């Protein structure tokens, strides 16, 4: 991997001393599949990159490769790191349950009220090495979005209206939840949703209530918003563990300082602002409908959520143990 060679000279320079060798800072390439105008970038990438580059001036510099320039397949961003094409990648683990199977615990419906709860629990579980799939990676940031809601072309005013509708989902857990309401889940990456709705391949999509629905074109195709808060989607910035371990200790310290809980709190606070702004924008548009579930529908949904959680936990002892750990971390926040 190129970074292993690049860090050797810098490590030697640090060891010898600044008077002996004037080393160039280590450049880390961060792969991001979308643009610098997206809320994901503003919440999850920009604060981390700016903080690291400011404190690490002269030691390390992160360069973001936007719009999939290092690899356009959103589902294969982690492979860019494993193959050495990128040093860091922003990854949506739900697209790769084969690599990150235990992220499902964060995706369980009704478990978290907001992005902050999900992000901090996710961060804690990653730090505790409780999740399979991260042995070869260092997660520099572990984030969870707000619970996703339903955005459709035709109005949805009740749970019954979901019956027979083809709804885009992020992961199998979301699929299991929607199936329980009679919907037909269709797994699609985020950059294909608007096209799929426009072509009639799906009737709508689960996405969080924030600017992402405008940034990826979904709001142009879906004018109806049913605020059934389902489950969070996980997002993470990963680096190959051997590459991270090869970095000089001062560089590792800076990356760690602005990752973890610091990054999760930054992400969650930005996400919270996005929810309020997007909700206000949608409700002010007379061409749109924004509907809250009725008390009866919410009670029914909560029962379905509990069944999905129970079924996942009962599938094997590891799931049951992981759910207990997630709930224990959640209890620390309340």
Give me the secondary-structure topology:
Layout: H1 2-16, E1 26-31, H2 39-55, E2 60-65, H3 77-82, E3 88-91, H4 104-107, H5 115-127, E4 137-144, E5 149-152, E6 166-169, H6 172-179, E7 184-187, H7 193-198, E8 204-207, H8 212-215, H9 218-221, E9 224-226, E10 234-240, H10 241-246, H11 249-257, H12 260-283, E11 289-291, H13 295-314, H14 317-333
Parallel strand pairs: 1-2, 1-3, 6-7, 6-8, 9-11
Antiparallel strand pairs: 3-10, 4-10, 5-8, 5-9
Strand order of the largest sheet: 7-6-8-5-9-11
> What is the gyration radius calculated from CA atoms?
21 Å
CATH class of the largest domain: Alpha Beta
**Any idea what the shape is?**
globular
The CATH architecture assignment of the largest domain turns out to be 3-Layer(aba) Sandwich
CATH fold topology of the largest domain? D-Maltodextrin-Binding Protein, domain 2
The largest pleated sheet is described as: 6 strands, mixed
CATH homologous superfamily (4th level) name of the largest domain: Bacterial extracellular solute-binding protein, family 7
Number of domains: 2
N-to-C CA distance: 43 Å
H/E series: HEHEHEHHEEEHEHEHHEEHHHEHH
* Quaternary structure type: single chain
Low-confidence stretches: 8-16
Describe the structure.
- The protein is 46% helix and 16% strand.
- With 334 residues, it is α/β, with parallel strands linked by helices.
- The protein folds into two domains: 184 residues, Bacterial extracellular solute-binding protein, family 7 (D-Maltodextrin-Binding Protein, domain 2); 130 residues, D-Maltodextrin-Binding Protein, domain 2 (3-Layer(aba) Sandwich).
- The strands form two sheets. It has a six-stranded mixed β-sheet with strand order 7-6-8-5-9-11, sandwiched between helices. It has a five-stranded mixed β-sheet with strand order 2-1-3-10-4.
- β1, α2 and β2 form a beta-alpha-beta unit.
- α5 packs antiparallel against α12 and α5 crosses α14.
């Amino acid at each position: 991997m190129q970074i292993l060679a690049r860090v050797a000279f810098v490590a030697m320079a640090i060891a010898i001393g600044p008077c002996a060798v004037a080393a160039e800072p280590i450049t880390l390439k961060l792969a991001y599949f979308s643009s610098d105008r997206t809320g994901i970038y503003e919440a999850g990438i920009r604060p981390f990159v700016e903080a690291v580059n400011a404190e690490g001036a002269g030691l390390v510099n992160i360069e973001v490769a936007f719009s999939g320039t290092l690899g356009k397949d959103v589902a294969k961003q982690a492979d860019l790191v494993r193959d050495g094409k990128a040093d860091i990648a922003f990854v949506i683990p739900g697209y790769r349950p084969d690599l990150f199977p235990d992220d499902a615990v964060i995706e369980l419906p009704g478990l978290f009220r907001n992005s902050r709860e999900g992000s901090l629990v996710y961060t804690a579980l990653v730090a505790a090495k409780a999740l399979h799939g991260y042995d070869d990676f260092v997660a520099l940031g572990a984030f969870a979005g707000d619970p996703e809601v339903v955005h459709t072309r035709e109005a949805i005013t009740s749970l019954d209206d979901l019956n027979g509708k083809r709804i885009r989902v992020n992961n199998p857990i979301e699929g299991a939840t929607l199936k329980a309401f009679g919907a037909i889940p269709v797994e699609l990456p985020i950059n294909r949703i608007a096209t799929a709705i426009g072509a009639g391949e799906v009737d709508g999509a689960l996405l969080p209530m924030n600017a992402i629905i405008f940034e990826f074109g979904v709001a142009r195709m879906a004018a109806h918003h049913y605020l059934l808060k389902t489950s969070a989607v996980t997002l993470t910035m990963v680096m190959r563990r051997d590459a991270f371990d090869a970095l000089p200790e001062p560089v590792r310290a800076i990356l760690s300082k602005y990752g973890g809980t610091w990054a999760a709190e930054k992400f969650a606070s930005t996400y919270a602002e996005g929810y309020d702004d997007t909700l206000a924008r949608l409700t002010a548009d007379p061409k749109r409908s924004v509907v809250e579930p009725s008390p009866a529908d919410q009670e029914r949904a909560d029962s379905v959520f509990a069944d999905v959680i129970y079924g996942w936990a009962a599938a094997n002892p590891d799931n049951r143990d992981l759910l207990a750990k997630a709930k224990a971390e959640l209890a620390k926040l309340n």
